[in-house]
Amino acid sequence: MWVRILLVITTTVAAVVKEVSIENYPWQVSIEKNGVHTCGGTMLRSLVLMTAEHCVYGVQKESLQVRAGTSTREKGGELRGVKTIFEHPDYNPVTFENDVAILELDSAFDSTRPVDLLHSDNSVADDAVGLVIGWGISSAEDGGRSSPNLKMVELPKVSEEKCAEVYPNFNATTMICFGGNGGGDSCLSDSGGPILVWRMRNILEQVGIVSHAFGCGEVGKPGVYTRVTAFQDFISESSWKPYL
Questions:
Q1: Angle formed at CA 187 by CA 238 and CA 1, multiple of 5 degrees
Q2: 191 is catalytic
Q3: Same structural domain for residues 105 and 120?
Q4: Per-residue pLDDT of the chain (244 residues; tens, 9 = 90+)
Q5: Cα angle value 32/102/3 (rounded, 5°)
Q6: Is there a catalytic annotation at residue 99?
Q7: Which of 57, 95, 208, 242 has a C-alpha 20 to 30 A away from that of 222?
Q8: d(C-alpha 205, C-alpha 120), whole Å
Q9: Is 54 a catalytic residue?
Q10: Alpha carbons 206 and 151: distance in angstroms, whole number
């Protein structure tokens, strides 16, 4: 099983995959380890961002920096160090249960704004389409080289029943699935980034965090995302600690 790290896009879904500007997704950030992009994340407050726990599990904060305000991977924008890592105490590295973490920066960004979080799972329709944003390969034919530019892919929501058939450890309370139709997908180094859905008033809200899957872009094998509504208490408590 792979943790999700790069955006994999096959030529069959070119119409729904495109380069996007960070100006349209100002909450999106890149987490770099020793200067190399490894995961995505989303800003919650001026000093705080959310990512996947597996992105920081066993990692020293001194090796991390966060880049914001640029559509280009590992170039431009603003860089900040990580002051504190708030890890979920019940994270399971085998099942990816509770795959969520909060990072406190050493100083605030000037170019970001907070992401809107989904607060009601009942509003995610069965036919909902999620938007995954990240830096990854642009074609299955380009040798696995990462795109220098931020990209977006649209993925259909998958029922809890179908997801449980693929993943024995799937927990519908804390996880949600998208994709598995053989088209574009999240993959290596998209981990920690968002999957978002359109809500009323044309607002994008984050419903999940890129977590794990069997392969990338394979038919019948959707991606599993941490369900953010299941961790409202942890997210709220951790994201306010730097301000107390």
A1: 90
A2: yes
A3: no
A4: 555 543 433 333 332 568 899 999 999 999 999 999 999 999 999 999 999 999 999 999 999 999 999 999 999 999 999 999 999 999 999 999 999 999 999 999 999 999 999 987 667 888 889 999 998 654 444 455 567 889 898 899 999 999 999 999 999 999 999 988 766 667 667 899 999 998 877 889 999 999 988 776 677 788 899 999 999 999 999 999 888 6
A5: 60
A6: yes
A7: 57
A8: 11
A9: yes
A10: 17
Q: Which residue has the tokens 């649209």?
A: 154
- Do 105 and 121 share a structural domain? no
83 and 173 share one domain: no
Contact yes or no for 224/214 (Cβ under 8 A)? no
100 lies in some domain? yes
- Any domain includes 211: yes
> Which CATH number covers residue 83?
2.40.10.10
Which one of the listed residues 30, 37, 88, 99 is annotated catalytic? 99
What tokens does 95 get?
């099942």
Q: Catalytic residue among 54, 88, 189, 211, which? A: 54
Query: Does 151 lie in the same domain as 212?
Result: yes
CA-closest candidate to residue 30, choices 206, 150, 197: 150
The active-site residue out of 30, 138, 191, 211 is 191
